[in-house]
Write a structure and sequence with these properties.
The protein is an alpha+beta fold and about 350 residues long. The protein has three domains: about 100 residues, DnaJ domain (Helix Hairpins, Orthogonal Bundle); about 90 residues, HSP40/DNAj peptide-binding domain (Sandwich); about 90 residues, HSP40/DNAj peptide-binding domain, CATH 2.60.260. Helix content is about 30%, strand content about 30%. The protein contains ten helices and 15 strands. The strands form six sheets. It has a four-stranded mixed beta sheet. It binds zinc ion (2 copies).
Length: about 350
């Protein structure tokens, strides 16, 4: 028989490791060499070795005996009538294990897990947000494997009855203790409680029944959507495990700001620059709206900041009928450069204002 390895070395931990550290190290390594995750030769032996090391080091009495006397100290334990690891043995180790993998272990129904959600960002223009649009989005999604239709088995082959639990998905451990025999029932560690195992895995998905695919999907974006709104497409996320339902797809909307328009609730703000003469004399101007050009009348004597309302020319309400308004705000622009003639006219005008104010 090969010499036993040092338990601390087996778990890859320091001799001063705390109970929590021991537990953590065990779980990590047990997952790696669990016979169901790792089909390598020797994985099973390694799993047993880990269990043994863990059982000794997580028990304070056994650990101190091991620290003082090495493996001989532990052998001494069993010969003193503890029946190997007796009470705290295999049963609790498996419970620990399955506790950790809850959702993975257990029965087949528990193994069906909803797929995860997908998150994407879609950038659209101001007009697209206001009026609604359709966007084609390329996504990476986990879908049912096309080769095996999600079964995980090579086409034409079937999963076979688990040889470890004979198809029941459960394992009974009969144990001897100081208090007599008792039976401990746990989920089968080979098939993880399913009762069957894939013996001939599908080449494409390696038995998982799922594969990652690039997809192009069309997302309908409703009129009136705003920056940072999110659209949820139910069931368009990743497919679940073992036939579990698909997750959802969330599309976060980003709206590019507009050169002329500014959104305030469902109203569209628009600033109209006009010159001094237009404001003083009044005029009619054509302005842009989301729905085409509109003419508005600027009455004589209009001040900067004066606001006109174009009813119903704003952004549609997302959850009800109707639309907001467009608000047109005047901004008087003082000329920065005057030609000779304009300068003369302004001077004349200035004289005229001065004499008027006397
Ligand atoms: Zn497949
Ligand atoms: Zn089994």
């Amino acid at each position: 028989m090969a010499a036993k390895r040092d338990y601390y070395q087996v778990l890859g931990i320091d001799r001063k490791a705390s109970n929590a550290e021991i537990k953590k190290a065990f779980r990590k390594l047990a997952f790696q060499c669990h016979p169901d995750h790792n089909r390598d030769d020797g994985a099973e032996a390694r799993f047993k070795e880990l269990n043994e090391a863990y059982q000794v080091l997580c028990d304070p009495d056994k650990r101190s005996a091991y620290d003082r006397f090495g493996h001989a100290g532990i052998d001494g334990f069993s010969s003193r009538g503890f029946e190997g690891f007796g009470f705290n043995g295999v049963g609790s180790i498996f419970e620990d294990f399955y506790d950790f993998f809850s959702g993975v272990a257990g029965n087949a129904r528990q193994r069906q897990r909803r797929g995860s959600d997908l998150h994407y960002e879609i950038t659209i223009t101001f007009e697209e947000a206001a009026l609604g649009c359709e966007k084609d989005v390329k996504i990476n999604r986990i879908e049912r494997c096309a080769e095996c239709h999600g079964s995980g088995s090579k086409p034409g082959s079937q999963p076979s009855k688990c040889p470890t639990c004979n198809g029941s998905g459960q394992i009974s451990h009969v144990q001897q203790s100081l208090f007599g025999r008792f039976t401990n029932v746990t989920a089968c560690s080979h098939c993880l409680g399913e009762g069957e195992v894939i013996t001939n895995p599908c080449n494409k998905c390696r038995g998982t029944g799922r594969e990652k695919k690039k997809q192009s999907i069309t997302i309908e974006i409703p009129a009136g959507i705003d920056d940072n709104n999110e659209i949820r497409l139910s069931g368009q996320g990743n497919i679940g495990e073992k036939g579990g339902p698909s997750g959802d797809l969330y599309a976060a909307i980003k709206v590019i700001s507009h050169k002329l328009f500014y959104r305030e609730g469902n109203d569209v703000l628009y600033e109209l620059p006009i010159d001094f003469a237009q404001a003083a004399l009044g005029t009619e101007v054509e302005i842009p709206t989301l729905y085409g050009k509109e003419k508005i009348k600027i009455p004589a004597g209009s001040q900067t900041g004066k606001t006109f309302q174009l009813k119903g020319k704003g952004i549609p309400y997302l959850r009800s009928n109707g639309r907001g308004n467009q608000l047109v705000r005047l901004r008087l622009v003082t000329p920065q450069k005057l030609n000779k003639e304009q300068r003369k006219l302004f001077e004349k005008l200035a004289e005229s204002f001065t004499s008027q104010n006397k």
